[in-house]
């Protein structure tokens, strides 16, 4: 987390945006088409993650069992056992010109990820979110009037306190999970899943993703997707959030074109990750002041506040602000469901049916029609 301190101190404030207009104006009455995935039939993600079910002859091991964790890489993420189908899909996307040839960054001590000379992180061809460049299609803002709930870095021991609170308040959040944390804390994972919260991807080992090669980016995302897939009855995650908010045109293209993932950033940052550090850069009082400013301020655009289930203090910072959320009339939903669309690529949510990844399969029932209003 220390490197995030560096990141937070050095990142320039929001400077300019490639696309300053929120693309989320049509978030009601969206509905998945019956018998197809969220992605078009031609998208490679269809063949990379296969759902469980009688027709496939696949059953998944119980979450937390030795069979369940078998075959997944330790930290750091392994390139050795990556499925060839993932690599083939990546290389096909590169050959088709779908993955921009942006060089990897380096992270000099005490500095943000840095591009080689000649590459401007604010240029459209690079567009680094670390430098606050917004790529159209990535999510930074919530719909007007909405506070979209999400928490990063779990599952971890402080998570159950948060989950109990959310359940008590009748709320569902999106959890951007770290793959190795799911392996280490399966009981916490199960608690969020049983609450029918939405599970999304925060990578396998929490690196600065622009420092990674194409294959490493694929591994960080793919292994996390595979573990969530295996642990949620075959659901394929639809959203990911880059650690430290560090992505660019190359990284987001791998996520989108190979794995079907949409990138989610945020538009307000509490720095709550530092609360449990030896020298925190914020405090509960300071966060309370920030929250008051944001929650009593403009509702256009809606809020996506970066928060963590990293420590008891960071969970407390969220719970302390809840009364303000209610008293100021914010509509609330998980980040994954804020567009009124599905939380997963092949399923509406934790309780809806999981669609077959087979074109023409008639066994899939259409999902329920839902609106963003009804998901609060
Ligand atoms: Zn994180």
Give a brief rundown of this model:
This protein has 376 residues and is α/β, with parallel strands linked by helices. Helices cover 30% and strands 7% of the residues. Zinc ion is lined by residues 152-153, 202, 206, 243.
Plain-language structure description:
The protein has helices at residues 2-10, 45-48, 66-69, 84-95, 159-168, 179-184, 186-194, 214-231, 249-259, 284-295, 312-327, and strands spanning 146-152, 174-177, 198-201, 239-240, 262-263, 268-269, 305-306, 331-334. The chain has a single domain, classed as Alpha-Beta Barrel (TIM Barrel), CATH 3.20.20.370. With 376 residues, the chain is an alpha/beta fold. Strands 3-2-1-8 form a four-stranded parallel β-sheet. Strands 4-5 form a two-stranded parallel sheet. Residues 1-35, 51-55 and 358-376 have low confidence and may be disordered. Helix 8 packs across helix 9 (249-259). Helix 10 (284-295) links the parallel strand 6 (268-269) and strand 7 (305-306). It starts with a helix and ends in a 42-residue tail after the last strand. It binds zinc ion (ZN). Zinc ion is lined by residues 152-153, 202, 206, 243.
Layout: helices, strands, pairs:
Blueprint: H1 2-10, H2 45-48, H3 66-69, H4 84-95, E1 146-152, H5 159-168, E2 174-177, H6 179-184, H7 186-194, E3 198-201, H8 214-231, E4 239-240, H9 249-259, E5 262-263, E6 268-269, H10 284-295, E7 305-306, H11 312-327, E8 331-334
Parallel strand pairs: 1-2, 1-8, 2-3, 4-5, 6-7
Helix pairs in contact: 5-11, 8-9, 10-11
Bound molecules: zinc ion (ZN).
